[in-house]
Amino acid sequence: MNVKTRQACRLQTGFTLLEVMVAMAIIAITLIAVYDSQSASVSRASEAKFTVKASLLLQKKMAEIEMMNAEDISSDSGDFGDEFPGFSWRIDVEESSIDIIEDLSVPLKQIDLTISWGEDELYSYNMRQYLFSPE
Predict the structure, then answer these.
(1) CA-based nearest residue to 75, from 88, 94, 61, 58
(2) What is the pTM of this model?
């Protein structure tokens, strides 16, 4: 091998600073996208976990309400104790009616039930139901 060939081989081996910087930028963009995707996935998993628990707690609370006499149902709030820490419920009750035909209306109670979780009620799950309320 002559001297010129050895110098040419030395010049062509390795990466230039520009190539390294482009490769690092591509890696950084890829890692940011992966991190963002992972963060969104964890957030969606938390929301799904809350939705499943809240819907079951809502059904439980609504079953308790339906077992009560219509005149005993009133607005109230509370929590689910140590069994479901961080979960709270709120019931808002309003008198309502539906006019079936002229001069005939059916008395109802509009019940809005909200299940919340977290500080400042980060997540909430709502349901509205109407119960017959004989006068």
Answers:
(1) 94
(2) 0.65
